[in-house]
Amino acid sequence: MVQINDNFLKLPGSYLFSEIARRVAAYSAAHPEKALIKLGIGDVTLPLPQAVTAAMHKAVDEMATASGFHGYGPEQGYAFLREAIAAQDYKARGVDIAPDEIFISDGAKSDCGNIVDLFGPDNKVAVCDPVYPVYVDTNAMSGRAGVYDEKSGKWSNLVYMPCVAENGFMPDLPGELVDMIYLCFPNNPTGAAATMDQLKPWVEYANRTGAILLYDSAYEAFITTPGVPHTIYEIDGAQTCAIEFRSFSKTAGFTGTRCAYTVVPKALQRGGASLNAMWNRRQCTKFNGVPYVVQRGAEAVYTPEGRAQVQANLAVYQNNAKVIREGLAAAGLTVSGGVDSPYVWARTPDGVDSWTFFDRLLQEANVVTTPGAGFGPSGEGYIRLTGFGQPDATKEAVERVKAVIR
Ligand SMILES: *Cc1c(COP(=O)(O)O)cnc(C)c1O
After folding, report:
1. Could you tell me the distance, in angstroms and rounded to a whole number, from the CA of residue 218 to the centre of ligand 1?
2. Which residues line ligand 1 (CB under 6 A)?
């Protein structure tokens, strides 16, 4: 009889977004006349830049011709896209990353999840708390997390690094030795961005101990503060200890189109092996590449028109985040994030818990947020709001929240 991977049985239900949906549906059913504004969404809302769709149309037409047809492409992605990324996301920032260190994929979520294939079962895994749940659940599925304790909301074998107001939402180096360290900056959910000085100790730690940094940079495009690094490889020594995940999802509106990439430097060796060679082997075995049409669309992000259109869309989200941040601060809430990030992280007033404040905003302001506790124990006492909504609705939502908490 077949044996299942019983690590799956240890996973708690994915409670957060289903519970939000349940509470929103119940409220709407009881109050059908109330128009809710959703500031909980973690998805973009603006259409794809015109330069992207034009490139995709052109690629579709090519596919309809004998000479322009593309079958299986390179598993690692087409050279035209890898070269554009190497030149514009790295070289232009003074960082030498070669095209064959860049692997195009269908998503940073998949890559963050799949990367665990490269690492042994006994590694100690450290995650920020609060956290993007993918890092935790994929390690649980592959048997590295131990057992989940409902009461504490923690897995027995994971090392949780609290990111709270007291440490400026930057994790402290773990007190015990760890092997796989997930960092995400600008952070989802807190919206905190990391400076060069804040990242340097992590690179130093990983090189010194032989650990690996798994650096999720999905929100890099939202960085506006001068001096905040756009890639972990701006830190000296990162090429011997870090894998970086990037995505066109939040950058260029590709959440439904699907394109991302992962950088595995050739200088990155562990256990006597090249992680670049291992990831290449893994991708060639389990992945057949991203559609040609989609990669042509992603390439257009790097054209002058594409860049301008992407920046215009980002400016809308950035301004929404600013409106939320400044509005809630003016109303007396303690807020952070929302500067180099679409996410604003707000302390609940009077120490009420995340879900209580969520309910209050839902019922009294008719605004949907995300309770911080859903991202981990240290998210308790916070809510997350996002700049991905419509500008007018965002302004209206902030006014409603202000009226409620005043
Ligand atoms: C949205 C998001 C991603 C992007 O995932 P895709 O699969 O590329 O859409 C990755 N990491 C974090 C933290 C995110 O919030």
Report:
1. 6
2. 107-109, 132, 184, 188, 216, 218, 247, 249-250, 255, 260
What's the 351 CA to ligand 1 centre distance in angstroms? 30
Q: What's the sign of the alpha-carbon dihedral 217, 220, 222, 226?
A: positive
For the CA of 259, the nearest atom of ligand 1: 8
Tell the CATH topology of 53-302: Aspartate Aminotransferase; domain 2 (3.40.640)
Query: Rounded distance, CA 42 to CA 131, Å?
Result: 14
- At the fourth CATH level, the homologous superfamily of domain 13-42+305-405 is Aspartate Aminotransferase, domain 1 (3.90.1150.10)
Q: What is the CA radius of gyration of the chain?
A: 21
What lies within 8 Å, CB to CB, of 287 at 6+ separation is 75, 105
pLDDT number for residue 125: 98
Residues of the chain with CATH 3.90.1150.10: 13-42+305-405
Question: Distance from the CA of 255 to the center of ligand 1, in angstroms?
Answer: 8
Q: Residues 303-332: pLDDT tens digits?
A: 999 999 999 999 999 999 999 999 999 999
Locate CATH 3.40.640.10 in the chain: 53-302
Q: 0.85 cut: is pTM over it?
A: yes
Give the amino acid at 367: V
| Closest ligand 1 atom to 184 CA | 13
